[in-house]
Write a structure and sequence with these properties.
Four Helix Bundle (Hemerythrin (Met), subunit A)
């Protein structure tokens, strides 16, 4: 029993490491997952790597091609649109719940300060045209919103689409997204939370994702290597 639990623990460590590399785009869609290389990178045996790849396949993040091996899954333009539709609905509810927690006095000042400080750093990144740093701040801002959500069903669904969101946002941030408009929307969401307007907060969060979804629908991804 102890050995089984230890094995499961190591497998989940491998799973977390590989998944984080996918989220951070250190492992790009279409990249082969070579057990021997990952074993060296993460300093662990190939067995937990193999089991972690199976878990990621079950989540739809990895595909295993017969006689070729495992690859980070590529997505279609429609996949991204569908993911943004999910995020549009769920993030509206999650953000509204953050506002409700604030009204009920269930959020400490440190949480709210981190939201504001993140936005201020994103302002600085925009001013210096550091768009990758801004995109990182965008990720931090949304993850901080999620961090107080108690609905595990919401979080699981958001987790399942988050990698796709992050992948396409990496491209849009550089090529097609009006970052100042997005930043203004972030500040509007923050102010609605601080002023205690739950429904307004939900509407703003939904429109924030809706706008990007429409940009995706109008964007030509033909030269983008990891979109089918």
């Amino acid at each position: 029993m102890v050995k089984t639990r230890a094995k499961e623990s190591i497998t989940h460590i491998a799973y977390d490491k590989i998944k984080q590399h996918i989220i951070d785009l250190h492992l790009m869609p279409g990249t082969p997952l070579v057990e021997s290389e990952l074993s060296i990178r993460f300093n662990m045996s190939r067995t937990p790597i193999r089991e972690a790849i199976k878990l990621l396949e079950a989540e739809g993040l990895v595909e295993i091609v017969l006689n070729k091996g495992a690859y980070i899954k590529k997505f279609t333009k429609s996949d991204f649109i569908y993911c943004y539709e999910v995020a549009e609905a769920l993030e509206g509810m999650v953000t509204m719940q953050v506002c409700e927690k604030m009204l009920a006095g269930k959020l400490d000042s440190a949480y709210l300060e981190k939201l504001r400080a993140t936005l201020e750093k994103m302002d600085e990144a925009l001013s210096s045209h550091n768009y990758q740093e801004w995109a990182h701040g965008d990720q931090v801002f949304h993850e901080h919103i999620y961090s107080v959500c108690e609905n595990l069903y919401f979080l699981k669904m958001l987790s399942n689409v988050y990698i796709q969101l992050n992948s396409v946002l990496w491209y849009l941030t550089v090529a097609a997204l009006d970052k100042q408009i997005s930043q203004n929307e972030h500040w509007q969401i923050y102010r609605a939370i601080m002023e205690g307007h739950p429904e307004e907060t939900r509407t703003l969060a939904q429109k924030h994702r809706e706008r990007v979804r429409k940009i995706i629908a109008d964007t030509d991804f033909s030269g983008f290597p990891f979109i089918l």
